[in-house]
Structures are given as structure tokens and as C-alpha cells.
Amino acid sequence: MVKFPGFHIILYSIEAFGLLNIYKLFIFALSKIYNSINYYTNYVFKKEMSGIDSIVKKFDEFENAMSEGLPKVDQRLIIDMLHRMKRDASPMYTIEIFLKEEPNTDDIKSIITEGLGVMPALYDHGTHIVVAHRFNLQMLEYISNNLNVEKIRGTFTGAGRGASIGPVFERDDRPDY
Known about the structure:
Layout: H1 7-69, H2 75-85, E1 92-99, H3 105-116, E2 121-123, E3 128-134, H4 137-146, E4 149-158
Antiparallel strand pairs: 1-3, 1-4, 2-3
Helix pairs in contact: 3-4
């Protein structure tokens, strides 16, 4: 085989030129992939995320509506009651009412008996009232508006067949959420 002087330099130049083109092609392909990922991140995923954003926004509005409409009622109780009211207009709950100050117990008993038709159980000198009854949001509003209420909490006790489980909550339990 005949060797030409400087031939190896030409081969290295061709290899270098070929690698450079391959490198440029690789960078070009990477930029296209990056642009595709960027497109999906900025447009497609954000379009899908707009549904999530809408849910979060509407939930915030719902929480504000609960705070304005029934400010003294535990929000978890309202949400639980709304879910259960889809199947039963007045589900059975044990409702606990915490009053701001010691009341006239005869007045409390008459307000609850006349409004709900049940006799309440009184604890802590009448400042902690427990009522087992079929409840709806209007009844919670009635209690909230007619008594010196600090807060109202509750526990689902069954679909009309449940009995009172007695007091469960304490006045100083942590607040909603």
C-alpha cells in the first residue's frame, strides 16, 4: 500500500468535519425536543391545569360563602352535611353548640325545643349543648341566629336510625382546617 504524505491530516480533517456536522445535527435535534417540551409545558399542560385552577378558585369562593352564610358553623360539618343531603334531606347528626357565656337554661331549652322539637342535653353550666336530631342547614342557621353561639360542630350519627353519641368536641379543639 502506498502512503501519501499528509494523507492522515486530510482523514482527520474529514473526521473532524463529520463529527462537527453530527454535533450540529445533535444540537439541532435537542433544540427541537426542548421546544416541544416547552410548548407542552406552556400551552397544553397549562390548558389542562386551568381546570384545576378553576376548582381551587371555586373552592375558595365556597369557603368564603360558608364563612359569610354560616360563620359560627364548623366548615367540615357544612361540607359533610351537603354531601349527605344529596341522599337524605335531613340526615341524623349529634350537634354540639358552644355558647359564649352561661345562659338561662330554661330559655335555651325552650328555644331548641320550639325550633327543633327535641330536648337538648346541657353541659359545662349550659355553655355546651348537645342535640341529636335530623338536621339541615336551615336548622343550623336557626340555632346560630337565636342563641349566643360561639361555634357549632357536629358528628353524623346515621341515616335517621342513629342515636346520640353524646359530646365529642371540646371548646378549645383546634379550629377548622
